[in-house]
From TrEMBL:
One of its GO terms (molecular function) is nucleotide binding. The lineage of its organism: Bacteria, Pseudomonadati, Pseudomonadota, Alphaproteobacteria, Sphingomonadales. Pfam families: ELFV_dehydrog, ELFV_dehydrog_N. Transmembrane segments: none annotated. The active site is at residue 84. It comes from Erythrobacter litoralis (strain HTCC2594). GO terms for biological process: amino acid metabolic process. NAD(+) binds at residues 186-191. Keywords: NAD, Nucleotide-binding, Oxidoreductase. Residues 150-356 form the Glutamate/phenylalanine/leucine/valine/L-tryptophan dehydrogenase C-terminal domain. This is Leucine dehydrogenase.
Length: 357
């Protein structure tokens, strides 16, 4: 695997503390576990099961995503560092119990330096299988309403809702979202949750999803309007809330925006690094994605901490941390205004400081 020989010369290598190749010929497992930082606690981040065009792309993903988790966990105030694993799937995406067991053994061998959970291609059932071999796992089924964990979507939506309210107060000087027009891209677990919470407060909603019937049904339920997927970014509104795909803020996407605020849960919203500054030049307030969408990881991390400590009732801690998302955003916006540096870069710098870099 040539990509492994000099991964530390890759542009995405950022003094990661550990990058491990895991091979188990018997089960066919090839995985990379990358731990970016354990400065604040164990490197936490999900496992992605994906068919990559080549091993280099898998390495890039592991390096980039694990650094992202360091930043996200630090900015969420969690006692967790950043890590990520990728399992290199074959073209048929063959996954077996033996493969998951071998992966669990590899996580266990790291002795708690890395804590895993679900990511793209890995289900809750897969995590249950991994948990047969290691306790350094989160994202397992939970029981009871006051337990942290379970589906992270509603917690992510809650954080975004608080973040949108903070953005509306900061940019528009309004202490409520009543009558504020929010255009929501993607009405799945996160976008649908955000729309429901905003509707309760009387926000005006325009919704869109590539599954147009989904957006239309939700618009009917909440009293909003549904538009075609290619119309949502140019909708004249106060807040554009991307909750579908990443990389939507590119040259063309930013030019089309007709809003004062971008605040939504989609990961990696900027197509390239330069697009953060481009958005700021248009005087659009930006809520950095990994700060505003941290509600899910806050819940998943608390589930892990509760299980490790044999405790429960962590839901209050989750709510407390989610309620702090707006404070962090305001800090970022104030520093951005003071320094003239775009909000995404300010957030990265704050995160780097928190992890001692
Ligand atoms: P989901 O699959 O439940 O919903 C995504 C929705 O977006 C789907 O309804 C899909 O049809 C729609 N969609 C896809 N492409 C679209 C397009 N071009 N235009 C309009 N709609 C489109 O996923 P989710 O869990 O709601 O996650 C949404 C985003 O939030 C993703 O980027 C995800 O990485 C991010 N995120 C999710 C969580 C979480 O807790 N679920 C946490 C952090 C970040």
């Amino acid at each position: 695997m040539n990509a492994m020989t000099a991964f530390w010369t890759e542009a995405d290598y950022d003094d990661h503390e550990l990058v491990q190749l895991v091979r188990d010929p018997k089960s066919g497992l090839t995985a990379i576990i990358a731990i970016h930082s354990t400065h604040l606690g164990p490197g936490a981040g999900g496992t992605r099961f994906w068919h990559y065009p080549d091993p280099k792309a898998a390495m890039r993903d592991a390096l980039r995503l694990s650094r992202g988790m360091s930043y996200k966990n630090a900015m969420a105030g969690l006692p967790m560092g950043g890590g990520k694993a990728v399992i290199l799937a074959d073209e048929d995406r063959t996954k077996s119990p033996e493969m998951l067991a071998a992966f669990g053994d590899a996580v266990e061998a790291l002795g708690g330096k890395y804590v895993t959970a679900e990511d793209v291609g890995i289900s809750e059932a897969d995590m249950v299988a991994v948990s047969q071999r290691t306790s350094y796992v989160s994202g397992l089924p939970v029981e009871g309403e006051d337990s942290a964990g379970g589906d992270p979507g509603p917690f992510t939506a809650m954080g975004i809702y608080h973040g949108i309210k903070a953005a509306v107060a900061h940019k528009l000087g309004k202490d409520s979202v009543k009558g504020v027009h929010v255009a929501v891209q993607g009405t799945g677990s996160v976008g649908g949750g955000v729309a429901r919470l905003l509707a309760k407060d009387g926000a005006k909603l325009t919704l869109s999803d590539i599954h147009e019937d989904r957006a239309e049904a939700l618009a009917t339920e909440l009293g909003g309007k549904a538009v075609a997927p290619d119309a949502i970014m140019s909708t004249a509104c106060d807040v554009f809330s991307p909750n579908a795909l990443g990389a939507i803020l590119d040259d063309e996407g930013i030019a089309r925006l007709d809003c004062a605020i971008v605040a939504g849960g989609a990961n990696n919203q900027f197509a390239r690094a330069k697009h953060g500054a481009m958005l700021a030049e248009r005087d659009i307030l930006y809520a950095p994605d990994y700060v505003i969408n941290a509600g899910g990881i806050i819940s998943v991390a608390q589930e892990y901490l509760d299980r490790q400590q044999g405790a429960s009732g962590g839901i209050n801690e989750v709510r407390k941390r989610i309620a702090q998302i707006p404070e962090r955003l305001v800090q970022i916006w104030q520093e951005s205004e003071r320094s003239g540096i775009s909000a995404d870069v300010v957030a990265d710098r704050m995160a780097q400081k928190l992890i001692g870099r």
